[in-house]
Amino acid sequence: MFKKILIANRGEIACRVIRTAEKLGIATVAVYSDADRDALHVKMADEAVHIGPAPSSQSYIVIDRILDAIRKTGADAVHPGYGFLSENAHFAEALKAERVAFIGPPPVAIEAMGDKITSKKIAAAAGVSTVPGHMGLIETAEEAARIAHAIGYPVMIKASAGGGGKGMRIAWNDAEAREGFQSSKNEAKSSFGDDRIFIEKFITQPRHIEIQVLGDQHGNIVYLGERECSIQRRNQKVIEEAPSPFLDATTRKAMGEQAVALAKAVGYHSAGTVEFIVDGEKNFYFLEMNTRLQVEHPVTELITGLDLVEEMIRVAAGERLSFGQDDVRLDGWAIESRLYAEDPYRNFLPSIGRLTRYRPPAEGRQPDGTVLRNDTGVFEGGEISMYYDPMIAKLCSWAPDRAGAIEAMGRALDDFEVEGIGHNLPFLSAVMDQQRFRAGRLTTAYIAEEFPDGFSGVAASEDQARLLAAVATFIYLALARRGAQVSGALANHPRAIGADWVASLAGHEFALRVAQDEERIAIAFADGKNLSVASDWLPGASHAVFEVEGHRLGVKTTLAGSGIRLRWRGIDATAFVRSPRVAELARLMPVKLPPDTSRMLLCPMPGVLTSLAVQEGDTVEAGQALATVEAMKMENVLRAERRGTVRRVAAQAGASLAVDELIMEFE
Predict the structure, then answer these.
(1) What's the confidence (pLDDT) of residue 492?
(2) Is 569:429 a contact under the CB 8 Å cutoff?
(3) CATH topology of domain 462-586
(4) Exposed, middle or buried by CB within 10 Å (0-12, 13-18, 19+), for 209?
(5) SS3 category, 427
(6) What pLDDT, on the 0 to 100 scale, is given for residue 644?
(7) Active-site residue flag, 630
(8) Cα-only R_g, the chain
(9) Is residue 415 classed as helix, strand or coil in its secondary structure?
(10) In 3D, which of 272, 262, 275 has the Cα closest to residue 294?
């Protein structure tokens, strides 16, 4: 077994590998850039080596810097995690030359499967069904448009060396094919140093289902079931689960056997994933093979009981698999929610800054028998950098069945506190409560179909608003009692607290009467409904659990002027609890309107303005590209919403912009 493993990665996956290495008694080495000097993976490792400036092109993907770190520390093995150098055959070869073990597959398999064109040819030869497309390299945008037109729209334009949604575009016509080709090339070159592009047919109403494979160096290969990864945005997965709610045992077996056949065809060992696209009739087609550990591997671990990182380490050390295909059992259901530093209210654009509050729910087995797991690489007070992937954490739930796993995830998201940056917790909560998700009717177009106008939060139903009104009333009266005690002590007589109140939030208003004791309050609504509320909430608490007539509500609470901001299940509403007379007067108050920014192009996220497509005096049409902003390795093209004339350009190409910073104004 190895004595010291260097993790050639950062963030949550580096922390994940360190935890397993510690379990096995293996020392660990972290590497870090200038931006990661105080990162969690650096603190967790036994040793840490600085490898360069913040951009990954000058640190994490520079092979010579990683090799220098290996020589300095005497590491005898390297785990690459995912991303960066994890699927770089040259890196694996360089480690071999240094007599250092690569905890991953052989270089020949990485090279064959890392090139999407070559991998499809090998898959077809191995009897794996593949998606129709053009397997040759494409040199120009015009050529891309001709090929796409011949295949038939819609098509997927993909980077040959791509992954993680980088360098991928869907085109529905020639113009989009030309534009998508150039954007894909730019992203591919920036992210992977390889700008080769290919095109394949985009299958409508698809599901993205992948098979986890694991093999040793002695020819033994097994598949460990599937993962459903259909809920995506910008071709990057957001919510995954295992098993898939769509597959039956026959289809699962057929997909698993094809995945194993492909792995054997390239002499594969270690953990890997074969990705398929599956249509509504359960026909499946090979997409690609990821020759590394997948981001979503925890859900497979939760239903199989295996530690995939440990298995990778043992395989790299030359050990045989301790089990065969017949020994693999899938137990229960697991769901993973990817918590990203992306603002869903701004079309999931990246957010950076300091985590002023980071309080995940308690991990491990819960009182109801479910299990929670949170893989993370951040901590309260840490910074989310613009240089890397915006992932904050991967929250996972396990239960004996899918409904239980969804309920456990919903509660865990309610209890997860993140402040200081934009993040997608409200969106994840919203999905957990959607009937379509609960029914398992998933496709890769799920987000576009369910949120066609973007995510603007969850509108509280009357029943939900009533529950939150009860919570707000409990908080308001707790504060009122506290104030009465203080003023009473000063004045030598207690101040009376009324029984009649009006609670309003999210467009709903409830007249109510309250009776209370030391442990709970009883609320009688004017429409005849009654609720009782109990909680351990105390003034200053940012989160508390409320029991409302048998319902458990984990609610994030913040005092907001005279109101109480409540966040729960994707709902973000400010509640007001007033006396009947004050409520009557409040209805007469005018509503403050937001400023008019319709004639401005504002930067939607922190990033670099890489290019301007127009200049002052130009007339632009609706949908026309105006500027491109790059953030967290993704290019974002900003377009005109309507026809107009550019009056002033306020920013220059190459400038680093803050969120809502002015780029240009229109007449």
Answers:
(1) 62
(2) yes
(3) Glycoprotein, Type 4 Pilin (3.30.700)
(4) buried
(5) helix
(6) 94
(7) no
(8) 27
(9) helix
(10) 272
Distance separating alpha carbons of residues 264 and 236, to the nearest angstrom: 28
From the number of C-beta atoms within 10 Å of its C-beta (0-12, 13-18, 19+), residue 478 rates as middle
Query: Given this model, what pLDDT does residue 611 score?
Result: 94
CB–CB of 531/470 below 8 Å? Answer: yes
Which residue ranges make up each domain of the chain? 4-103, 132-201, 462-586, 600-666
Question: Would you say domain 132-201 falls under CATH 3.30.1490.20?
Answer: yes
Does 3.40.50.2000 match the CATH number of domain 4-103? Answer: no
Residue 253 DSSP SS3: helix
Under DSSP, the state recorded for 388 is S
Per-residue model confidence (pLDDT) at position 488 = 56
Tens of pLDDT, residues 242-252: 999 999 999 99
Where does residue 310 rank: exposed (0-12), middle (13-18), buried (19+ CB within 10 A)? middle
Pairing of strands 607-612, 656-657: antiparallel
Residue segments in the chain with a per-residue pLDDT below the cut of 70: 162-164, 486-495, 518, 632-633
Tokens of 486: 């203080």
Q: What is the pLDDT of residue 517?
A: 77
Nearest to 650, CA basis, from 612, 619, 624, 620? 612
- Amino acid 643 reads R
Answer yes or no: are the C-beta atoms of 205 and 283 closer than 8 Å.
Answer: no
CA–CA dist 506, 564 (Å, integer): 12
Was domain 600-666 assigned CATH 2.40.50.100?
Answer: yes
What is the tens place of the pLDDT at every residue in 411-440? Answer: 999 999 999 999 999 999 999 999 999 999
pTM, two decimal places = 0.84
Which residues face 48 on adjacent strands?
A: 30
Q: Which of 228, 275, 288, 336 is catalytic?
A: 288
Tokens of 6: 């260097």
Asked if 132-201 and 600-666 have one fold, the answer is no
The whole-angstrom separation of Cα 79 and Cα 221 is 20
* All residues at 6 or more sequence positions from 326 whose CB lies less than 8 Å from its CB, including other chains: none
Cβ–Cβ < 8 Å for 99, 67: no
Render the burial of 252-289: b for 16+ CB within 10 Å, e for the rest: beebbebbbebbebbebbbbbbbbbbbeeeeebbbbbb
- 314: how many CB neighbours lie within 10 A of its CB? 19
